[in-house]
Amino acid sequence: MPRIKLTKKVIDKLPVPVNEYGERYYDDSMAGFGVIVRPSGRKTFFIDYGKQRRRMKIGDYGVLTLE
Fold this sequence. Notes:
globular
């Protein structure tokens, strides 16, 4: 689970993963915030929270932006 500076340019260039579950990328400046890239190419923003590391989907990339 790499930590990177998430920007529009970076998210657009994220590779499509080969595993069936997708790959999560966490933002290095906002704890728990990230984007998951699915094998279909779909990208979704999420937030991890709580002691038990629950995950909530925020919305799909393209419909929502980082701004």
